[in-house]
Design goal:
Layout: E1 11-16, H1 19-27, E2 36-39, E3 47-50, H2 52-55, H3 65-71, E4 76-78, H4 82-97, E5 103-107, E6 110-114, H5 125-140, E7 144-149, H6 152-159, E8 167-169, H7 175-181, H8 192-200, H9 206-210, H10 214-221, H11 225-231, E9 248-259, H12 262-283, E10 287-296, E11 301-312, H13 315-327, E12 336-346
Parallel strand pairs: 2-4, 7-8
Antiparallel strand pairs: 1-6, 1-7, 2-3, 5-6, 9-12, 10-11, 10-12
Helix pairs in contact: 4-5, 10-11, 12-13
């Protein structure tokens, strides 16, 4: 690895702490120190974000509101205010821009920064990360956690290491050992089902993963095997891309008890619509293609999709198309263990009509 230019990069991953909930607690003193969930409290509501006080009770994002309320009876629900979050996000982005133009936002509340060449000539990624966190606290009244390392993969892992309001620095010679010590569930992209599959294969930690060769990983995880092979060794050559364009936005839920009846499936689908619409709102996205994914109890997966000449730009349209796609697989031949929706064919901001209005009804013929 000697002489590898990517080892000389200085990457920071900044992640705001419980962003939406923290904004609500900042703006409403009565909520401070209390368990707060941003989202709907109705039967079909979903938690978009939870304060750390709520997380102590197991409340988490994408959890059905009724489940969250059951786990935390004193939970306070507040409606999301995406415009307020966007304003704060822009403040934070301006703080980043004081140090570098190489900023790759992942959402309103997190971003990668490449500070190898920093505008202020500070020269130290650690000092820059400290300065950014201090400025965020002083100018927004919020806290952020940061990971500092030589690549994006490890910087993102590091930012989660000392949350909330913490920082973790991983140097190039520490990277492989740091990755080896972590459970694979911490790896970005490894969800509960993938972690479960890995556990059955005897892979529990980064160290276990590093023992597998690339052919074995490709056999079990397909094209993703190459990523896992290098990640397990602390290697990630991806640059911070300031011009990255998001290709899709999705959400899915896996169920402990398979869904079988039409009523169960439609209720479950509405919850997913709530989740994906929150993500669409946060990213100010519009897209022309909606894909429904369903996985049966035997792990067979099917998809149904529709593409339109005009963008799906409001929740009602997303829900309408989603239920039409669900109609195509009803009645289900066996229990459904997973449902998901993905909006793709996203429009760039230059393709979106200024002041565009919701499109309303769509034609399905």
């Amino acid at each position: 690895m000697e002489g590898n230019p990517t080892l000389n990069r200085k990457i920071i991953h900044v992640d705001m702490d419980a962003f939406y909930a923290s904004v609500e607690q900042r703006d409403n003193p009565e909520l401070r120190g209390k368990p707060v969930a941003v989202g709907g409290s109705s039967k079909r509501g979903v938690v978009a974000a939870a304060s750390y006080e709520a997380r102590a009770f197991g409340v988490r994002s994408a959890m059905p509101s009724v489940t969250a309320q059951r786990q935390c009876p004193d939970l306070i629900f507040v409606k999301p205010r995406f415009e307020a979050y966007k304003i704060v996000s822009q403040q934070i982005r301006e703080i980043f821009a004081r140090h570098t133009d190489l900023i790759q936002p992942l959402s309103l509340d997190e971003a990668y920064l490449d500070v190898t060449q920093d505008k202020q000539g500070i020269g130290s990624a650690v000092k820059i990360a400290k300065a950014i966190r201090t400025a965020i606290r002083e100018e927004t009244g919020l806290t952020a956690s940061a990971g500092v390392s030589y690549n994006k993969f490890i910087a993102k892992l590091a930012s989660d290491q000392n949350k909330p309001d913490g920082m973790c620095v991983i140097l190039p010679d520490q990277g492989p050992e740091f990755v080896a010590s972590l459970p694979v569930r911490r790896f970005h992209g490894v969800g509960p089902r993938t972690a479960e599959k890995m556990a059955k294969l005897g892979v529990h930690t980064g160290a276990d993963l590093a023992l597998k060769d690339e052919a074995w990983l490709a056999q079990h995880f397909g094209s993703w095997g190459g990523y896992l092979f290098w990640a397990a060794r602390g290697i990630d050559h991806r640059p911070v891309n300031a011009n990255a364009v998001r290709k899709s936005i999705g959400a899915e839920s896996t169920y402990f008890d398979d869904k079988r009846s039409e009523a169960e499936l439609r209720d479950a689908l509405e919850e997913i619509v709530d989740i994906i619409w929150g993500r669409i709102e946060r990213n100010q996205a519009q897209g022309r293609t909606l894909v429904l994914k369903a996985r049966y109890s035997d792990f067979r997966t099917i998809t149904r999709s529709r593409t339109f000449g005009q963008a799906l730009s409001d929740r009602a349209s997303i829900a309408q198309v989603a239920h039409v796609l669900l109609d195509q697989i009803l009645p289900v031949e066996m229990g459904v263990r997973l449902l998901g929706l993905t909006l793709s064919g996203l429009l760039g901001h230059d393709e979106m009509p200024h002041g565009a209005k919701p499109q309303g009804q769509f034609t399905f013929d």
